[in-house]
Amino acid sequence: MIVKSRFNFLLTFLFITHLAVWSQTSRKLPVPKNIIVMIGDGMGFNHIQAVNCYEGKAAQVYQNFPVKLAVSHYPAKAGEYEEGNPGSNFIAGGYNPALAWKDTAYLKRDFTESAASATALATGYKTYNNSIGMSVTHDTLENLVQWAKATGRAAGVVTSVEFCHATPAGFTAHNIVRTNYSQIATEMLLDSRCDVIMGCGDPGFDNDGNPVKGSWKNTKYVVDSNFWQNIITGSGKQTQFTINGKRKTVRDIDGDGKPDPWTVVRSVSDFRNLRHGKTPKRVLGCPLVYETLQQKRVMINGETKDSPPQITPQISTVPALSEMSLGALNVLDNNNKGFFLMIEGGAIDWASHANQKGRLVEELESFNAAVEAVIEWVEKYSSWNETLLIVTADHETGLLWGEEPFKPIQEKGKGNLPVMNFNSENHSNSLVPFFAKGSGSELYKMFADEYDSVRGPFIQNSELPQLIHFLWYK
Ligand SMILES: [Zn+2]
């Protein structure tokens, strides 16, 4: 069953009470034309602090946004989803500020993972861990991409990990469990009305960007090898494909009655060219690398997990997240009704799971560069009156602190790794940062009705889209 977003009632009530204050200043409620949500996967407050120390910076540009809050992201049901084992997910314990600052053991319990958090950030509903766009009762939830398309806007997702991985999938697809990659990729490419999908997963390359010799083994991220060959050779033209013996047609994304083929962009030069000038109508961007843009490249030159960044040279044949983001914006702004775009720095989480200090700094720097590129785009081609930009995270990974837990990250001078230590190889229930600027951003302060003794006022991850739904549908 498809669950139409029914939190209107709650929101309307909320707004009636709060709106009084707002209308005092007699300003009409804004309707953001464009909304850009940038997610640092696993990015906690201390991840940002570690990079500030390394760069000798007081703050990243988004830390000076007018709206600064925190986000709680615990799921409705924690644990790991196992098909046929309903007990594998259990009711999560929420977030208790008093306990959170008492001991790390509390933060290591009942944490979310990216699929459940992305689903909450995209649909407004908290759900069970590993869910992709499904409720705790396994109903299909409408998401931000669908709302954008339903309001005549364009929509897209961009990530530095596989395009059908948990976070981009949470904004575009619906599946009982996040590991059904082939099914999820099929839904994203053949059933969604996305205008842009960008991310890794190409089975023809390894994690260093080298072509794979012999037959492709890992095709789950791209549906299957037959489909992948066809979509590449049929780029810009082919609209019908055979998957598991069934003929399927891509969707009509602009309501002209004709199915819209994907134009496949792969080479770094094609990604860079996409940033300017005329663009294809619909773009699938898949760099020539397997799982991530850079984080999974093999460590050489004696690099270890405690090494500073850039010991192993970066892969030169893949674009940067900032370049992918600008290309996506150049396609989406073809729609003069506006657009929704989710951009994920996905491998911040992977570097943190692996407790890699230098690679974490690299991934944060790549994400921060993408945020700066997006800000420049807004100020050059749009405005803060019509565009809302949110920079946040889906959860924290690695329980990153300084010398010991709850001790601040300590700088050791520009260009040196600060004193930073991971206290886990997994996610934590620590609050994460939320920064917003532009059309409607101030209204998030009304949602921040919970308070943390250290991080201040905070919202729930599921409240991020609730405001958007209200503003777009009121
Ligand atoms: Zn993770």
Task: Write a structural description.
By secondary structure, the protein is α/β, with parallel strands linked by helices. It has one domain (30-471): Alkaline Phosphatase, subunit A (3-Layer(aba) Sandwich). It contains 15 helices and 19 strands. An eleven-stranded mixed sheet has the order 11-12-8-7-13-2-14-17-3-19-18, with helices on both faces. The protein has a two-stranded parallel ribbon with strand order 1-6. Strands 4-5 form a two-stranded antiparallel sheet. A hairpin with a 2-residue loop joins strand 9 (240-243) and strand 10 (246-249). Helix 2 (45-55) crosses helix 13 and helix 5 runs parallel beside helix 7 (166-172). The longest helix has 25 residues, at 357-381. It is globular and about 55 Å long. The two termini are 24 Å apart. The model has no long low-confidence stretch (mean pLDDT 94). Bound molecules: zinc ion. Zinc ion (ZN) binds at residues 42, 114, 349, 353, 397, 427.
Tally the beta strands: 19
Category by helix and strand content: alpha/beta
Q: Look at the structure and give the CATH class.
A: Alpha Beta
Determine the CATH superfamily.
Answer: Alkaline Phosphatase, subunit A
